[in-house]
Amino acid sequence: MSPHSTPSFPEPITADAPTAIPRPLLTQSWLDLAFLHWAADPADVAGLLPPGTVPDTLDGVTYVGLVAFRMHRVGWLRLPGVPYLGTFPETNVRLYSVDEQGRRGVVFRSLDASRLIPVAVGRLGFGMPYLWSRMSVRTDGDTVTYTSSRRWPGPRGAHSRIAVKVGERVARPTELEHFLTARWGMHGMFFGRRLYLPNAHPRWSLHRAELLECDEDLVAAAGLPAPSGAPVSVLYSPGVPARFGRPARPAGIPTP
């Protein structure tokens, strides 16, 4: 795929996972999520995506996401999730991608997390851009506040403070809201090889959210232009349990 080409038939945007994952490689729950998104020119982010992928777009526009939440009980295979090491706040900066097979996904530019061991495992074992940060998620009535301050590897002190007021449930999400949240895989590089990691989870319960505070430099620290202006979309979800399948090579063949 050339840097500026687009797959002829990208998979449809669906609110439900296209395939079940009966034998997961990894299980976890994502709780108390705040989704903040800014519109971006595809040309500005294309060079930050893995080879073989291009920016996924809706009406010619792609998006930069800042997503804060609580990771809960990460577990391997069918083993129970780990209560302490597998439970921690996380904030990620992500882009949206599509590959030659038309598979839509996300590309993580950074993943700040508060547990050092999962950060080390993610970085050293899987080549993921995990970073160790001081973090908290606090709820006060209908207001949720997420904070982070990076410790290692840097840039040290890169931070975020996000506060949202949770509003009414979204009865019928728009096409854009599905585009930003209903993502059924991740594109990435694992020790020099391109892989696609599929995931599945129940349909999101989404709520409108009012952004009360957003003081952050994580987007710029991830190599993207700093956001100018308010996000075009602010959503909240109480969360979902998620399952990840075996990674697939570019041709769609599962790895051994």
From TrEMBL:
| Name of the molecule in the record | DUF2071 domain-containing protein
Alphabetized InterPro entries for the sequence:
ADC_dom_sf, DUF2071
Q: Which Pfam families match?
A: DUF2071
